[in-house]
Amino acid sequence: xxxxxxxxxxxxxxxxxxxxxxxxxxxxxxxxxxxxxxxxxxxxxxxxxxxxxxxxxxxxxxxxxxxxxxxxxxxxxxxxxxxxxxxxxxxxxxxxxxxxxxxxxxxxxxxxxxxxxxxxxxxxxxxxxxxxxxxxxxxxxxxxxxxxxxxxxxxxxxxxxxxxxxxxxxx
Length: 171
Fold this sequence. Notes:
Layout: H1 2-23, H2 25-29, H3 34-49, H4 64-74, H5 86-123, H6 132-139, H7 141-146, H8 160-163
Helix pairs in contact: 1-3, 5-6
């Protein structure tokens, strides 16, 4: 029931965001999506009256990114017509595929290089931190949210993702 209430809370915020975007012209001119406006309203409400609202409305929001990223990728090619054969599809897709691979591997090289050469020795940052650059830029924040458990140490408990605050390096 908590997940249903949390989902209803997100839907309600999306409707509020759409209504605000419709009636406040500056939000339209700034090209702010209704989801961002609704998210800001939700952030404001939780911070202002969070103790008055049942935590069931927002307690399981942190588990949504891992599930919803599957919905995003599953629906990517819905409604796309066939291009007329594998040869034509390859000629259309090959340049983008090569460009995407160069960008992705370049981000891995820069992120891991920075960790190995600077961040690791100076700030004692773990090596896995180098992957976050590529995952964050190419995958986006939803992918990072979905993969958050991957970057936790094995000794971390199940609630560590929502409560993990990096500690300063020890001297």
